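User: For my dataset I need records formatted as: sequence, then structure tokens, nothing else. Please produce one.
Assistant:
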Amino acid sequence: MPAGYAMPVNYYTCPTPNCTYYSPRREDLILHTRNYHTSIRAHTCPHSSCGKAFGTSSHLAEHVRGVHDGARPHACDVPGCGYAAATPGNLTKHQKTHFSVKTFECGLNGCRKVFGKGADLKVHQAGHA
């Protein structure tokens, strides 16, 4: 959980370090652990040159649609943006670029550029060197 937030009562939390997943259902936590924190990948991409495998058939289907079929059915609704994503999760990540608070400021050599993620700031600062 992000700092400053209280964990809801009766929730199951992922024991994996740095993972913030939690659920009111134990079954969902079990599925989460299997799909994201183990090497069990029973659903293999049918494209011979790919070789990727996934924990669920729905993740495989999203992969095939987005990577091999080029489908991008999830469009950003910000006027003038034009971005479309293969998965709802990727669209959500993208939309944060429009609305997120940017709290990571560069500060190198008088630079005042700000970023929403610390990782993006590090990449930017490497360009100053």
